[in-house]
Known about the structure:
By secondary structure, the protein is mainly beta. It has helices at residues 13-17, 19-22, 258-269, 287-291, 305-314; strands at residues 32-35, 44-54, 58-66, 72-75, 88-91, 94-96, 100-102, 111-115, 126-132, 135-144, 153-157, 164-173, 179-186, 192-202, 205-217, 236-241, 297-301, 318-323, 327-334. The protein is built from 5 helices and 19 strands.
Amino acid sequence: MKPALFFAVVFGLIWLLTPMANAADSDPLPTELHADLNGDGRPERITWFKFAETDDEGDFFQVRVLDDDGQLLWESPRVIDTENPLAFGNWHFGFSLPEIAADIDGDGAVELVTPAPQSDVSPTYFRVLRWQNGQFVPARSGILLEFPRGSGHFPWALADQGQGIWISSFQARQPDGSLRVEVFEYLGGASVRKGVANVDLEDGGFQVRSWPKPLAVLSDMPSPEASDPPLDGGVVIYRARLGPSDHFNSAGARLETVAQILRQDRANYYRGMGDEDDGPDPAFQTLEERETMDARRPIPVGSAQAAWREAILYGNPLVEVEVTDLELRVRIVAP
Length: 335
């Protein structure tokens, strides 16, 4: 998977970049898809439902394919493993549910396209499953980053890249055969643009045909409202609920130190995935600011070190964090 790629922008930018967040101001996420999988002229129904929920990862879904009579043709395995290519879910660190079912590579077979969970701002990593011999099987994965810059060409790539223009989601197949996709641009600094393009299939990727919604700077980002301004001497105090999603990184791996959990809490909060009791802070709104957390030593306040560490690593306490130049002074307010 790709590394987390961040930048200094105002509060709420990451929330705007996630498909879940954008569902209200663009096309809603599908609850099922339809596609003619076997070429008989009658579309099959592709649907999914939750079959499991875990405290560590979140909700797991099973995908099913039904014919036009409602008969089951195929179903994905019920795996509780976020690394499995046939795992689908709405997890604490992101969601991975089908976006589109269409022939996206010109081979005559239908592909099911699913985004992999992403952390902060980075090109969307897609998983592509192909309908083959009566089942969906893994076909490819990768990002779709414009190359060369300004060409309108989006080839499949596996390279880790954090800047440029990329296809962030697949929305629909158009009557003319093109695909409508959402596109994001990040070239550094605080400017991010978003648009919608119609793209045609080309060898190894896609080519822009038209721009129904040209790239435009995001202007509706919410502003941070840090209720606790820095105190005299540069001290900041904020409250945070260290919930289940704060205990895992963007790849779904459990975090092993108090410092990592504190940093993940702030990353989740500033991309719109915070817990109910989380509060704002004026110190860690951007990646650059959160990176300074690594140089600060977390220390317990009002608790013995062992019990304090146990409560944070294996519980979901409400904490109050006092930020100084050298320390993160953490007091457990409630379990």
